[in-house]
Design goal:
CATH superfamily: Winged helix-like DNA-binding domain superfamily/Winged helix DNA-binding domain
Structural class: alpha+beta
Strand order of the largest sheet: 1-3-2
Number of strands: 3
CATH class: Mainly Alpha
Number of domains: 1
Helix content: 55-70%
Distance between the termini: 25 Å
Amino acid sequence: MEKQVAVAALAALAQETRLDVFRLLVRSGAEGLAAGEIGTELDIPSATLSFHLKELKSAGLLVCERDGRSRVYRPDFAAMRELVGFLTESCCRGKRPKEMQR
């Protein structure tokens, strides 16, 4: 992962509402949630939610597809793994800490 991509993803998550949305979508799993469900669950007005979903999608953290008249959002688990890998790639000088050996 390029540093610029990691910075964009981290910047998108460094906002309270977007972090809440992303965590909710991670909990929802691969099925994802329709935008209306996200707004209802987190009590976010639709215009505000649209802005935050656009930011997360632009940062490469979400995927979106149409389902009839709804848009369903899912976390991009591959991008999430890549970001975590980028953050931990030089961990502990190449030695695996005991906490990670489990």
